[in-house]
Amino acid sequence: MKYNKLTFPYKGESHDFVHEGSYKVVREDLEEGVLGEADNDGTIKIDKSVKPGSKKEKEIIVHEETHMNEMEAEDEDGNKLLAYDDDSVTDNIAGKTYKRKNGKLIDNDTGKEYEEGDPKLPHESRAFAASNKIKNA
Ligand SMILES: [Zn+2]
Q1: What does the pLDDT read at residue 23?
Q2: Global pTM value
């Protein structure tokens, strides 16, 4: 299994479609339970089960775009606002670092474990705040 992704686990319907927005959006068969991924190569992946043009699709793209914007932006010290690799996630907005292990993010300060994509994680909370505006529109 790979953990080099920030995921947005969400269930959807079946379809094939490629949307072009501010980032390259491609359709793939993602891992079970995962509907969207933001790759740090600038690609947003949407699971093939998500209906093209649907509100759900827009919701996922907005969510992943929020992660992507933070992965590209830098603070005054030149650090990415959000950075990740296979072993860790660094959230320089919330001042949090996490170890990645078996699909979990472990808070380096508190030792508390979260599922990847848990809305309680500050970087997920920010992305859900954006996507929930679509969801609740
Ligand atoms: Zn997310």
Answers
A1: 80
A2: 0.82
